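Changelog-linked ticket: adenosine monophosphate example.
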Amino acid sequence: MSLLPLFDLSLRARAARPALECESADGRRAAYTFGDLEIRSNRLAHLLRARGLQRGDRLAFFLQNRVEVIDLWLAGVKLGLIVVPINVLYRERELTHILRDAAPTAVVTSRELAGFVSGEVPIWEVDALAAEASGAPDERVAVPADADTPMALIYTSGTTGAAKGAVLTQGNFATNALTLVTAWDVTAADRYLATLPLFHVHGLANGLHIWLFSGCHMRLLERFEHLKAPVWFEEYRPTLFFGVPAMYVRLLELPPEVARSIGSRLRLAVSGSAPLPAEVHERFRQLYGSVILERYGMTETLMNVGNPYAGERRPGTVGFPLAHVAVKICDEAGAPVADGTTGELWVKGPNVCAGYWRRPEATAAAWVDGWFRTGDIGVRAPDGYITLQGRRSDLIISGGFNIYPREIEEVLLEQPGVREATVVGAPDPVRGEVPVAYLVVDPAAFDETALGQRLRTQLASFKQPRAFVRVAAIPRTALGKVQKHLLPRPASAPAAGA
Ligand code: MCA
Ligand code: AMP
């Protein structure tokens, strides 16, 4: 199953229909039909081909949400390119790793973001690229593709601290979106408010593809800004909204009459990427009259498990395996456990990626007899609802962005005056968790202000430790493994969500 024939349900069959409204952070707006998007991506495909890009070549984008990301994705599908989305919050260290690993022909970025990209890979400035593409031929270019054609390389942090590229195929994306469109009953009559970033799979594999498969209308915002949310919702009147828990926490701040009016038109609100506290689920229901549907996914697998659209959406659970996914919950030895017993979720299905880019050992470690080990710990109730309880690794999820403590620890250990460092997640009312660093320092050489400034240039904003706690020693087992649960609580609560 390849993507283009499914996209054509909208690009060709609904060519004249209004498809998209984009709004940038400075308020500039533009509207497109599906036919406009077909032509824009054809022109870009001609230009990319003229610049030498061929099937299987990588092309990275480092961009905020904007129509050019959609052009690039569609042109990528048409040419059989492997698109590499990069989180706009990444800074030089994170970017350099991805660009070296993926070795793209170029990275498409904006004038504002280009300064973060080191010179190793050619930079194609997005406005210049779009201007040049506008003069290219309109007719379609397309190379043959099937379910196994690699479509994207999406980086996800590994326990080693260095991000690995999950190789997602056209078949992975197609299966994921077909199931979700059906399971969530999405039709061309829907209106989808898109605020999730298109560089992660929640916004890309779910949002963008559900829109293209169903032919509904989408309003694409540059990014989620909670202060603007009431206006967006009131003006656009979406029937569909997909968000991370931090967005739902922010939406609880809206006045009750505004919330009720938004909720009266919202047919479906979906949450995922991080645990949605049952209390937020309940308060949202009371305020908006809308029962959030929580589902669970991963970059490597796209969506796996979800609460039912028609049926009980049980707070605190992620529901049942999706139609195309097999799930087993296993003990440490890989044997399935009984319902009610905690274990690791293993999944299998056409949604699971083809492996990690150029990392056969990591691929071999994650797949066992065709099953993908998610690293997520959970339990299945006798009536089938699955509840996630944590992770095998010490992953921190902040506002829906993943943080591997090891990566921050490695950067901290390179800083003057830092002898030992360990990073843990501290609870945060909005973002769920935020990172806090525990340091053993050499007082003569250590300067916390200078450290904070240096980290800002090296790591994404969401990875910045919200507090530095100085300790005399890091508690360790006899074998030297850090005992994070024995660390003292930070004296003052970190305040990312304040
Ligand atoms: C976030 N920030 C941004 C952007 N997004 N800055 C610029 N452009 C962006 N696109 C950062 C800023 O650096 C700043 O960091 C902070 O967010 C601003 O915070 P605030 O406006 O107060 O926002 P918030 O209310 O805290 O909400 C943050 C957020 C953001 C908008 C919810 O965390 C977000 O967009 N999360 C979505 C992540 C996502 O798409 N995850 C899906 C992964 P600071 O203040 O720290 O300096 S895919 C996945 O997990 C799987 C597969 C799945 O199941 O979906
Ligand atoms: P990523 O590496 O960005 O693909 O993040 C995937 C991880 O997000 C999963 O392995 C889970 O730990 C977490 N996740 C996604 N959805 C949920 C959810 N509904 N509840 C709890 N954790 C989630």
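Closing comment: Example verified and attached. The radius of gyration is 23 Å. The pocket of adenosine monophosphate (ligand 2) is lined by residues 156, 272-275, 294, 296-299, 318, 374, 376, 388, 391, 397, 402 (CB under 6 Å).
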